[in-house]
């Protein structure tokens, strides 16, 4: 998903230079230059937020600057520089490039996008790159985790654990039978733990959902992502949290889960990790995983049937795949110029070759071989918020309050606000000007690579399109599909 927290450009910014000031009438005219003013106001606002809220903008910004400073020192995999990478990305989304060209070069498109956007995602949005509706009294982080836990609850991992206990490795079962002097009935064998249930995160980003779901379920989770920086950053965060270490390295005789890097047949050192690879051609043997999920990731796939077929291949018989998809809804009208413009904004701002409909995704999942267990658009679930039935606009006016209980729609973080203590402040015209000129100053001082501001123009396009698409109801980031691999799975 696109970083929807760091827009840097606005039409009002274009005319906000220092020309309105008479340099001869001011003792220090340079103090009124937009770059200087933006720096002063930004620092002042950050001091207030740092002191009166738990947001910690200084800590996040220092981490952001640390990673930004080394972005061109080995962190880019799509191009030698940020400017070159954003140039190639802009070319693929120019009017001269077709959907077929973007589909054929999807790996380059997606890799360029996440080379550019990942740092801003983590800085402005956190480590989980996805949307969620917020229920009354939920914080942003609580809503994010609930959304992830709900998807994990669809994976039926209890049945996967039972399958490990009932099935297991035949040779190990016979050897255990001989040692116990009994029949191969499981007597004397240790019950397998959830750490032996293997789950795949298809398109894991830097692993925020992967780590949350690992904690929630206790399962072993492998994340797959195309981008090298995301792999390195995700593994860095996994290793930094002692919760993910397997303190008990013993392995039950029923499991086939081995640490590929160990010679003693033990469990892996950590219960979640990121692996670099293409989800269109996954680097795993067939029937490896007990379950799989994807959160707003397979929207980057140029061919949904092929993508879902790869997930099907690496899952065991009876395993479940659950996903949230980015889709166009039935309200989208290809003849409506505003709808078409919004669709293009989302594609350009979020690294998508194209956007599929809910019907296309569901049929693709079925054609890949899955039995469909459930499907619905979770945007339509009751969350305690209110949107104008005519315009779709989110509101808390007198009429809205009759139906409003405090919930907030998924696209609200992208909509402008004048509250300086929320991230939405940056989406009003002043916030857009401040962030734009602050980033230009960083580029001038060589604190940010050349081309970073162009990256934010790209992200802004996606944010504007997503916010409006949510109001109109023509797009959903959370079309839920749950499919099961048949027990008589055929490759």
TrEMBL record:
Key words, A-Z: Methyltransferase, S-adenosyl-L-methionine, Transferase
E.C. no: 2.1.1.-
Keyword Zinc-finger in annotation: no
SUPFAM superfamilies for the chain: S-adenosyl-L-methionine-dependent methyltransferases
A GO MF term: methyltransferase activity
Any matching Pfam family: Sterol_MT_C
UniProt enzyme class: transferase
Region (Disordered), start-end ranges: 170-189
One GO BP: methylation
Start and end residues of each SAM-dependent methyltransferase Erg6/SMT-type domain: 271-486
Biased composition (Basic and acidic residues): 170-181
Family: Belongs to the class I-like SAM-binding methyltransferase superfamily. Erg6/SMT family.
Designated name of the protein: Methyltransferase
Lineage, highest ranks first: Eukaryota, Sar, Stramenopiles, Ochrophyta, Bacillariophyta
């Amino acid at each position: 998903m696109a970083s929807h927290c760091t827009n840097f450009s606005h039409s009002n910014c274009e005319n906000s230079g220092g020309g309105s000031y008479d340099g001869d009438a001011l003792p220090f005219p340079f103090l009124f230059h937009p770059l200087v003013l933006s720096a002063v106001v930004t620092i002042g606002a950050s001091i207030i937020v740092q002191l009166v809220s738990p947001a910690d903008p200084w800590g996040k910004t220092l981490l952001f600057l640390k990673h930004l400073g080394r972005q061109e020192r080995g962190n880019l995999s799509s191009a030698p520089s940020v400017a070159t990478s954003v140039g190639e990305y802009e070319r693929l989304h120019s009017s001269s490039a077709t959907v077929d060209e973007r589909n054929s070069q999807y790996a380059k498109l997606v890799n360029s996008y996440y080379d550019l956007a990942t740092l801003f995602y983590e800085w402005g949005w956190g480590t989980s790159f996805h949307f969620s509706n917020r229920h009354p009294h939920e914080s942003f982080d609580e809503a994010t985790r609930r959304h992830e836990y709900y998807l994990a609850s669809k994976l039926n991992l209890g049945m996967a654990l039972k399958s490990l206990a009932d099935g297991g490795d035949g040779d190990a079962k016979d050897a255990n039978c001989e040692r116990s002097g009994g029949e191969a009935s499981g007597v004397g064998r240790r019950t397998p733990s959830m750490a032996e249930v293997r789950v795949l995160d298809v398109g894991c980003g830097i692993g925020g959902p992967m780590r949350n779901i690992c904690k929630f379920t206790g399962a072993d989770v492998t994340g797959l992502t195309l981008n090298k920086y995301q792999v390195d950053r995700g593994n860095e965060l996994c290793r930094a949290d002692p919760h993910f270490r397997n303190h008990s390295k013993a392995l039950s005789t029923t499991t086939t889960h081995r640490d590929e890097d160990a010679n003693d047949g033990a469990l892996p050192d950590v219960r979640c990790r990121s692996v670099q690879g293409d989800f269109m051609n996954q680097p795993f043997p067939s029937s490896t995983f007990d379950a799989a999920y994807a959160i707003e990731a397979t929207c980057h796939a140029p061919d949904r049937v092929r993508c879902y077929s790869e997930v099907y291949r690496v899952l065991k018989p009876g395993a479940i795949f659950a996903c949230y998809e980015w889709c166009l809804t039935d309200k989208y009208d290809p003849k409506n110029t505003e709808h078409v413009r919004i669709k293009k904004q989302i594609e350009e701002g979020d690294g998508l070759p194209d956007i599929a409909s809910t019907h296309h995704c569901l049929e693709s999942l079925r054609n890949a071989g899955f039995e469909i267990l459930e499907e619905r658009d979770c945007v339509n679930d009751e969350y305690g918020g209110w949107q104008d039935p005519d315009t779709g606009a989110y509101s808390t006016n007198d009429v809205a309050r009759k139906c409003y209980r405090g919930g907030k729609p998924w696209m609200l973080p992208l909509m402008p606000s004048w509250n300086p203590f929320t991230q939405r402040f940056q989406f009003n015209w002043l916030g857009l000007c401040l962030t734009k000129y602050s980033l230009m100053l960083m580029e001038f001082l060589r604190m940010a690579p050349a081309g970073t501001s162009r990256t934010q123009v790209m992200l802004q396009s996606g944010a504007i399109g997503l916010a409006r698409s949510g109001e109109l109801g023509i797009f959903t980031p959370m079309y839920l599909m749950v499919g099961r691999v048949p027990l008589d799975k055929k490759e």
